[in-house]
Amino acid sequence: MSVSKSEPILIVGGGAFGLSTVVHLLRAGYKDITVLDKDEEIPSRWSAANDLNKIVRAEYEDPLYQDLTVKAIEAWQTPLFAPHFHQVGFLHCVSGKAPKEALDTLNRFRAAAERDPRMRSHLSPLDSQKDISDAVWQYKDSAFPGWNGYFNKFDGYAHSGNALRSIFLATRAQGVKYILGAAGAVSEIIYEKTSSGRKAKGVKTTGGLFYPSNLVIVSVGAAGAKLVPEIGKQLVAKSWSVAHLHLTDDETSALRGIPVTYARDLGFFFEPDPKTNLLKLCPMGGGFINTDPKTGISHAPTDLKQSAFLPDGDEKQLRELVRQTLPQFADRPFSSNLVG
């Protein structure tokens, strides 16, 4: 439907997709934009993007997607986003015990990077522990048994939680309205009948507040099926485990600038965050889906505490990743664990 630049637009959800939509609507000249989110602040704790870091890599098997990711990296280097982008590189490997499927996937990504002239010069092969320690001096005492792959200096990571915060502050200063907490906890979309069916006319919150709008944009990620039941099984509420190692100031400084380090059969981790001294790790795997056995529809948890744990299998996998790469922390407990 066509909406004039002055008509009110409601965006439900203040995560990555919601805030990205705000940025693009503002750039397109829309004036009356309101974001509703059930958390008390942005970044929302309900957003998967409210995180220390997310991998930003350009190589993908699909050429269209790869072109988009190269353009995304260019956007990360613009004033709004640049403070949160860290082009530390991507050490992409398999371990010595990786299954054939993991090696095949790695080789497809490597081939995609080698074909692209924009990143070809940034690639280095990694065929031994010496190659890895030559590329990353902090790994000189690490075993990396049987690891092989490549190092792509074109890639890196983004501090996604801080990026969300920057967008929030910048767009609020430009007139975007944010309704947070109980007043922004949307429970349903309100429709009116039309000759061809129905159309949205606003939203209602759990407390009974009504916000009118002829255009409602739903950006609530895994919770989408609750607001738009017609989505049904098309939307999958999927999550992966996240764990952290809590380091000292000196330990954090010593690992400053390490690349995103990724074994396709074990998992990956990032350089530690200097503000919190937390080093984030994620295991590789198929993830977890919260499916209602009666309907087959998956939903996001209704309470954040439901996700505050680390499954035993994932903990064992991450422990092996740490032993092979950062042996000095092999026995350090994981903290701030979650499935999200």
TrEMBL record:
- Does the record carry DNA damage as a key word? no
For this protein, the parts annotated as crossing the membrane are: none
- Domain FAD dependent oxidoreductase per the UniProt entry, residue ranges: 9-331
* Pfam families xrefs: DAO
Answer yes or no on keyword Oxidoreductase: yes
One Gene Ontology term of the molecular function aspect = sarcosine oxidase activity
Which InterPro entries does the entry mention? FAD-dep_OxRdtase, FAD/NAD-bd_sf, MTOX
Top-rank taxon, per record: Eukaryota
Keywords, sorted A to Z:
FAD, Flavoprotein, Oxidoreductase
Would you tell me the protein name for this molecule?
Answer: FAD dependent oxidoreductase domain-containing protein
Q: What is the lineage of its organism?
A: Eukaryota, Fungi, Dikarya, Ascomycota, Pezizomycotina
